[in-house]
Amino acid sequence: MSPQEPSAPPAVWNSLEGLAYGGDYNPEQWPADTRMEDLELMKEAGVTFLSVGIFSWALLEPSEGEYDFAWLDEVMDNLAGAGIKVALATATAAPPAWLVRKHPEILPVTADGTVLGPGSRRHYTPSSAVYRRYATGITRVLAERYKDHPALALWHVDNELGCHVSEFYGDEDAAAFRRWLEGRYGTIEALNASWGTAFWSQHYASFEEILPPAVAPSTLNPGQQLDFQRFNSWALMDYYRSLLGVLREVTPGVPATTNLMVSSATKSMDYFDWAKDLDVIANDHYLVAADPERHIELAFSADLTRGVAGGDPWILMEHSTSAVNWQPRNQPKMPGEMLRNSLAHVARGADAVMFFQWRQSFAGSEKFHSAMVPHGGRETRVWREVVELGASLQRIGQVRGSLVEARVAIVFDYEAWWASELDSHPSEDVKYLDLLRAFHRSLFLRGISTDFVHPSASLEGYDLVLVCTLYSVTDAAAANIASAAQAGATVLVSYFSGIVDEQDHIRLGGYPGAFRDLLGISVEEFHPLLAGGTVKLSDGGAGSVWSEHVHVSGAAVGEASGAAVEASGGGASAEVLATFTEYPLDGVPALTRRSVGAGSALYLATFPDRNGIEALVDRLLAESGVSAVAVADPGVELTRRRTADGASFVFAINHSRADATVRVAGRELLTGKPFTGTVPASGVAVIAED
Q1: Which residues fall within 8 angstroms of residue 520, CB to CB, at 6 or more apart?
Q2: Catalytic residue among 160, 548, 575, 668
């Protein structure tokens, strides 16, 4: 999509110059002399931005109503004197011991009734009225004290909401769930209709009879499960809003955010819904060391974060300098990997690079988690790379505020993710992200940037739109996708898309319900494959996970191979591009294409193998006219950021251990010299294009 002028962030955040650099700073863990040393090290590293006070409630309010701000006053003043801006936290991510002792009812309860106790973090339920009262109280005290402090640039509200616990089953949660349902449906009759409670005698006479979908003898009502997912995302967001309301009242000119966990592993919260209450999107991302393609997963998560941000620049609030502490085997990052990771996030829209944490802890659960200042101090590879990264970010500071250029959209919907993976479905092997990641990987390897777009968002400006496993979809969203094809886009819809509406009700008349007319096909019956099973295709490829009995409108099964036939409703014809070749679906369409308006709509009825994905992407790119950012050797990650006035920057990140050639002309910002066309092994080039 062609870059548009980014929506203006609030003035304080926007006043930071260049790309912000820093991390979580926990000075309460260290004595005063170490904190003074920190200031010198921060200057050496080029730190400009820190999150402060995230887990400090127990020290700020050691007993109810008794406060100690001396250490935080000193830290804030020292950081301001050093020219470092602060994202000040509300300190609410871990309730102090005195609060748990006085009010154990704030603790979260799991589906099997287990009460999760203190001794860790995030040990509260967002629906607790008592906890909200105390949390808004400490938030107000902090806001009043530091509202005019020169270091304050951003409010960091709570921390990683939904981490560790994202579903809540206590009595107060159940009551909040019932209130939420009554607000959503208005009447119990409407809820019964939505949940289909005529099945299994689940009819409710009043909202008071409803409980959260906890442990039960058999499968639970899918409508109830889906609404409980929606409720929990809303409950956490409503808690966030309660703290935000205090900050807006006391510091209306200071922007606020919370650090999301946008990745290919986080499904519990609808971050597109959250985005409207965040002044700037902030995200935490950590690599999985065991993943040999972890840099591609990073790109997926960064692209999705940018999608949540609506294309605007965002903050990388946390990632790691090297190893983490919570994986089964915590390998360190390889030499140069931290620089590549950091600049890959910048290449995909981040205007701030931050880490957990500034100084590696000497005690506690995360003492083996890497940090900007490692246990070994200055005489370490990690520290040298931290200093190098700070200098690199300063050299490329002019990319701040520019937008990532992309002509491919992948439609992404958290509610479809939730609904598609409920139980009692045709196959447990259908996972929402699998096909999305396969297409994203193929595009990544070709140097093609991809935007993740909510199904209700505008698709204008995209030449290729991928709709993968969009199991549930509203009428309006389906029409939005169809209009993209009418306007000239190449649209691909995959199996298990358009099957149900937003209430998880089957769209009757044949699958894929919402997209039948667009595609000119109808599916009579699903034929999911057994574990490990494959099916051969007429184009020489193979499919896995899924197959189905597809009819192209106007043709009998077995008659359509290679032929163009009339689509439903007359007009443009649907062409069969590939068929299944094995019993019982021999000759049945597996890939179809229909001309629609100025564009086209394709249907994919199986999960192609890797070669099949590559061949299909070749076809889609040729038809849509989308091409790579530049010509480059294999192993080079390519993206382009462009400013509103047309200046453009190509990021070329070499993930191979050999020098790579990239055909781009311009000035390389990291060296300050004309780009020679070569990116060193395991290196990065940022080219201001001629």
Answers
A1: 552, 553, 566, 567, 568, 572, 573, 574, 592, 594, 601
A2: 160
